[in-house]
Known about the structure:
By secondary structure, the chain is an alpha+beta fold. The chain is built from 17 helices and 23 strands. The longest helix has 24 residues.
Amino acid sequence: MDHRMEQLFGDGLRRSQEGESRRYNLLAAALIADLVKNSLGPCGLEKVYIDIMGEITVTKDGSAILRKLDVEHPAAKIIIEAANSVDNEVGDGTTSVVILSGELLSKAQELLLSGIAPSVIIDGYLMGLDISLQTLNRISVSSTSIRREVMSKLAETCLRSRSISGVVARENTSAADLVVEAVWSIADLRNKMIDIDDIKIEEKLGNSSDTTLIRGTVIDKTFNASSRVKQVDNAKILLTNEELDKSRTRTNSELNISSYDQLENYHRSEYELLEVKVQNIIDSGANIVISQKGISKIVQQHLSRADVISLHRVKENDMLWLEKSTTARVIKDLNGPIPSSTLGYAGKVYEKLVGEDKMVFIDDCRNPKSVTLLLRANSKRVLDEYHRSALDGFAVLRDYILSPRIVGGAGATEMKVASIVRDKSRQINGRVQLVLRKFADALEEIPITLARNAGMDTVNTIIQLRSKHLPSNSKVKWYGIDSKSRKVDNIFSSVIEPSIVKEQILKTAVEVTCMLLRVDDVLMAKPKMQTHSHADGVEHSHPGGDKKHDHYFDRLGKQQRPMHHYY
């Protein structure tokens, strides 16, 4: 930075210009892409991340590992934010968008070194995006109705690259089958509406083959100790958030009692109020009472004598899931008669030992709008990865329900789009033609990465794929990477993805690349708060922390130093 700039901004500003800033952006994007590239596909490898607290995360989910990284370079932050936005929007394709963004920037650097201006590259990339989206719209297979067999293939495609794909539950049910069944149970297919938060995911250590789907709600609690019955068939369920205990004031209050009779009358009035509520519950016909608040021991005993099972201190989220699964309505006032229409239904309610803990199962509900996926695994880290995988599966099926259009996976779509873009480039004059060819080359990085992770020869693979996807072939054939057999094959019968996921990947990757290409000047101010450590181990931040200094507590004895100082 020259002397004039120092006079204008001071000596606390660092600046990198033009080629230098773009080179740093390219390097940052390439490093992020290389970090997740070998996790793509069924043969991808997993990453282990250890945070500052020593917590270990084992995953091959691109967004999961990128969210944990604390990076400083602005270009790297933009790439990570792009991956997170794709994950939030469509729930899949985070690794692909990072790889494609990194490759587009790499190809852009080659074009810049050839003397092509950034504005020309941006125009070419936007034109390539437009051609790609038109091609996707043309080649995608759409249907007027939601088909369950398509959902099964989508779930299998999404989960085959995750560790949960090896889970085989009882009755030979796969994890993909459980995911499809969960979504199929709660989705409003007629109106194409679904809220995946209606699927509760419960985790418990144990055997992975015990992973199961409950047509209702599982609560990580036990029946109250006073309950004599441990299982109820054809349960009528009452949900309440009213306190079934002695009333407590919200603020400090005093009650002046001058005689024993007054004290006795006070206690009797409290019990009478509770007895009225208990009798109303019994008269309603409910045999299960689930309360968000407390239930006193005396109330529990009264309910138990009437063969009514009770649970209390249930979480608010569980109450919401219970409402949707049992169709019950939460009662806020138990002082009057309780309409039978407010009660919910479950085929059976029982208490079961799961791992080392007992849990309550509200199962076999009629047309439940909320279900529970109970995940089992031998460690908490594996359970976390199963949880992430299940959420990805739910998101992919949601994408298909919202937009029932599918395309081939395993790199077949990228190869088909790249072939069309390369063919269209021949019809364009000028330097944009070169940009479009580089755009097509960048798209081919997805199948190349899949082939590399599967142990295939990448040169022979790309030659085969290009010959299979010649633009002269009028009929769309989905040739991609069959990672299981390690060959190029027509994969549409087994590997498919929602078209909306591919659209989101392309849009986000091109937007991020164009944003970084427009940057030619980076100005970085020196932080005002410098973090530093002292000889006694005290670590803090304040202005001037990078210069030699001391504090009053540096001159005090260790015993006199305050536990917490103003920094």
